[in-house]
Specification:
It is a single chain. A two-stranded antiparallel ribbon has the order 1-2. The protein has 2 domains: 120 residues, no CATH class; 88 residues, Arc Repressor Mutant, subunit A, CATH 1.10.10. The chain is globular, with a radius of gyration of 17 Å. It is built from 10 helices and 2 strands.
Length: 215
C-alpha cells in the first residue's frame, strides 16, 4: 500500500494511543489494515503517530555527535518498512510497537554502519543503555555514573544478536525496552510473561550486556 505517515501539519489534534478505548481501536485498525483496508491505514497513522514519535525520540536519545536523523524522519522511515509488512497477522497495539522497535533498530544500525564506512576509523555511534530506566520507569529518578556510560550502537546490536542465539527472550526484552521504550508492564504484555519475570530478566540482561560491552 505504501501509505506514508501523515506529517504533523496534516494531523487533526493527534492523540496518544495509550488510553483503554484507543488501545482497542488500534487493535481493530491493525486487523483492518492487515486485511487491506487503506482507510484503516490512514486512521491508524493518525492514532499512533504521537506514540511513534515518542518511541523514535527514545531510540535516538543518547546518540553522539554526527546523528542527523530526527524523530519525525525515523518515524516516516519506520512506517514505510511497517507498511511493507501490513498484511501480517496483527494481534495488538503492543505487538505493533514491538515490530516498530525492530524497524527503528534496523534503521539506526544501518545508518550507523553507513556513517562508519564513510568515516573509516571515525568515532563509533554512542548510545546510552542506562537511560532506559530513567526515561521509561523513573523519569525523575537520579542516575549513577554507570547508568550514563556510553555504548557503541553497533557493538550493542552485535551483542544483542549474540544474546538472541542462546536467550531470544532477553534479547527481545532489551529491544522492547531500549528501542520501543516500553515499560516493564508493557514489555511483560508483549512477551506474554509477568512483570516480575521481566524485571528479573531485564536486570540479568543488562548485567550481561555491560559485561559483554565493557560498559
Amino acid at each position: 500500500m505504501n501509505t506514508p505517515v501523515p506529517t504533523p501539519p496534516e494531523l487533526d489534534a493527534p492523540r496518544s494511543s495509550g488510553d483503554a478505548d484507543d488501545v482497542h481501536e488500534v487493535t481493530e485498525l491493525l486487523q483492518a489494515w492487515g486485511a487491506g483496508d487503506a482507510q484503516a491505514c490512514e486512521a491508524l497513522a493518525r492514532l499512533v503517530y504521537d506514540d511513534l514519535r515518542r518511541q523514535a525520540r527514545r531510540a535516538l536519545r543518547g546518540e553522539g555527535e554526527g546523528q542527523t536523523l530526527q524523530a519525525t524522519a525515523l518515524v516516516h522511515e519506520a512506517w514505510m518498512r511497517l507498511d511493507r509488512q501490513s498484511s501480517m497477522s496483527w494481534e495488538s497495539r503492543t505487538q505493533f510497537f514491538a515490530v516498530a522497535a525492530q524497524m527503528m533498530r534496523r534503521i539506526l544500525v544501518d545508518r550507523a554502519r553507513e556513517r562508519r564506512a564513510l568515516k573509516r576509523g571515525g568515532a563509533p555511534v554512542q548510545v546510552t543503555l542506562g537511560a532506559v530506566d530513567r526515561d521509561v520507569d523513573a523519569p525523575n529518578a537520579g542516575s549513577s555514573r554507570a547508568a550514563l556510560d556510553p555504548i557503541d550502537l553497533l557493538a550493542l546490536d552485535d551483542a544483542l544478536a549474540r544474546l538472541a542465539l542462546f536467550d531470544p527472550q532477553k534479547a527481545r526484552l532489551v529491544e522492547l525496552r531500549y528501542f520501543a521504550g516500553l515499560s516493564i508492564p508493557e514489555a511483560a504484555l508483549a512477551l506474554g510473561v509477568s512483570a516480575a519475570t521481566v524485571g528479573r530478566e531485564w536486570a540479568v540482561a543488562r548485567m550481561w550486556l555491560r559485561r559483554e560491552l565493557g560498559a
